[in-house]
Fold:
Amino acid sequence: VIDPLPPATTSYGPAAVWGVIVAVGVATFCIRLSFIYLFGRIDRVPPAVTRALRYVPAAVLAALVVPAVVSVEPSLTGTLTADRFLAGAAAAAVAWRTENVTATIVVGLVALWVLRFAVPV
Amino acid sequence: MDLPRLPQTAREGVRASLPLLVGVVPFGLVAGVAAVDAGLSPVAAVGMSVVVFAGAAQLAVIDLLRTDTPLVVVILTGVVVNLRMLMYSASLAPYFQQYRARWKALLAYFLTDQAYAVAVARYSEASVDTDTGADEQVDADAGVDRGETAGRDPSVDRRADGDCRGADGDGPGVTAEGAATDTATDPDGVDEGRDRFYLGVAVSIWAVWVCATAVGVGLGRGLPDTWGLDFAVPLVFLALLVPRLEDRSTTAAGVAAGAVALAATGLPYHLGLPVAAVVGVGVGLAAEGVRTS
Structure:
């Protein structure tokens, strides 16, 4: 089964790319500076915001990970045996056991290479 | 490590950052590889590490640019990924209150998950010992005044300058600021060198991050596409995600967001990601509400 590959490279030009870099950079800087700068005027994050922010990393990261690892195939077996899914599952196990970024990357990539190049399908 | 030109507190910061750098290197390599893989120029790839300086957001932005996602969604995603730093900013604010605005801006630029974690651990330890810091938040205005005064007093300037010149070796024009914000005049005396310790940690991370990105750019241009190195990006996200699933409500948030993102892959304008994130946060809050009520 061959994944429908997304376009390999961006078709945005340098101006758009730099526009994104600057926009995200400036916004991120404002986030970083926010309370450090405003201290004395606003000392605390409103509790409701704090509560919601607790879920942002889990939600955003999961929304990035799942579609990149799971590709929905016509059959359930196809979905569960796609190389990225199996490699992702191995990496998730390592992430859960070690919470180590490097180990997760290494195991995930090696698993992908083994499945791609060493296992005849 | 011998860093004779750095003041003691800055050296302690550099030393405290060393174990973290082991994790920064592969992450930076991936950021560089992924950027050139996605068709960004080498300069834009390294430029992003300097301007944005936030790994997860950079990888998200790179990934979305690669798939030609509308720019509004790309930017919003990058920003949302970094919203967590509001918490860090709020948490560090009382410890940085005595510094001048421009120095605060510099400190803020270097703020990362790792630098925050190390710095706040040290500061809170110190404030337990001496019972200052967070408890004196009300005194914010006085604190600011103190910083300003120190900056204008030439004698203080000179003394502080000689003491901390080395810490600011990474950029011209920084030294004067460092002198102005030296906390030697702080009557409490306990927070002396807070900024130096923080910068020791944070600038080390920054330098390694930018260098690792540059090396990754070199690697990315040399490695064949069939190796699937772009898969390293979701692997990094995975490694960051798993520790965040710390209890039932955060896990509910992650599961819901992942499911929605997968179901929404067909949505126009790549709206799946923001929709999934919002649903995930909502489900997390709902799960928390169910548990506590």
User: Anything to note?
Assistant: Chain A has a mean pLDDT of 87. The first helix of chain A runs from residue 14 to 38. Helices of chain A lie at 14-38, 47-53, 56-69, 76-81, 83-98, 101-118.
